[in-house]
Design goal:
This protein has 75 residues and is mainly alpha-helical. The protein has helices spanning 10-31, 35-60. Helix 1 runs antiparallel to helix 2 (35-60). The longest helix is centred in the middle third of the chain and has 26 residues, at 35-60.
Length: 75
């Protein structure tokens, strides 16, 4: 998987880290039987996805595979 450069960007790492923290929050509140805390954790998970998309749109993500590559102009 390391050869494909899948997810090796600041946008991917940040989004996944925030989502992981949200899953941990939700899991802790499931064990404590607190539904409000569970849903707060789910909001954090969704926030991780939004942050990742915003960072990708700011240029901190990987370019889509089908994106045309810039070609040098010939004089």
């Amino acid at each position: 998987m390391s050869a494909s450069d899948h997810g090796h960007t600041p946008a991917a790492w940040t989004g996944v880290t925030i989502a992981f923290i949200g899953f941990c929050i939700s899991g802790a509140f499931v064990v404590m039987a607190k539904p409000v805390g569970f849903w707060a954790g789910m909001v954090v998970v969704a926030l991780g996805g939004v942050v990742g998309l915003v960072m990708r749109s700011m240029g901190m993500g990987q370019a889509p595979k089908g994106a045309p590559k810039a070609q040098a102009q010939k004089a």
